[in-house]
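Q: what sequence does this backbone want?
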């Protein structure tokens, strides 16, 4: 059995169209590899079936790996602890008093990291009702100081 270049092209296009029915952004790379195989087979028509299948498999795996490594760096499930730059310096109102070794609660005018209220920590006692500034994100807690 010998596969022609146009059969790889049709298979590639069908796999890319299958991505519309299976919105995983995963099958598309098998289709792109099929289109690349069509080009390779058009240039080198004497390639054996085993070599074609091995090359298509390698291309598919390489494209999937490239997708996860380069083009999709935001595969994280949560943003906790990763957005220091966006949160540091935000000022909020302390709604629950905080003291060393005790957690408090701070409320912001607009949601940060998806919530208006966050549990906070502080190195000194701060009474409820005072304005505080975020100085760090430690796990799922915000570290605050008096603003």
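A:
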């Amino acid at each position: 059995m010998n596969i022609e270049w146009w059969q790889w092209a049709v298979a590639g296009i069908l796999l890319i169209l299958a991505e519309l029915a299976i919105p995983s952004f995963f099958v598309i790379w098998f289709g792109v590899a099929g289109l690349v195989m069509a080009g390779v087979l058009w240039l080198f028509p004497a390639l054996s079936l085993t070599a074609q299948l091995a090359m298509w498999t390698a291309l598919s795996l390489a494209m999937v790996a490239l997708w996860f490594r380069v083009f999709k760096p935001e595969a994280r499930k949560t943003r906790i602890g990763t957005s220091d730059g966006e949160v540091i310096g935000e000022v909020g109102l302390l709604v629950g008093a905080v003291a060393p070794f005790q957690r408090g609660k701070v409320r912001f005018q607009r949601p940060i990291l998806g919530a208006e209220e966050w549990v906070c920590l502080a190195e000194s006692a701060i009474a409820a009702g005072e304005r505080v500034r975020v100085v760090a994100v430690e796990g799922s807690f915000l570290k605050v100081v008096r603003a």
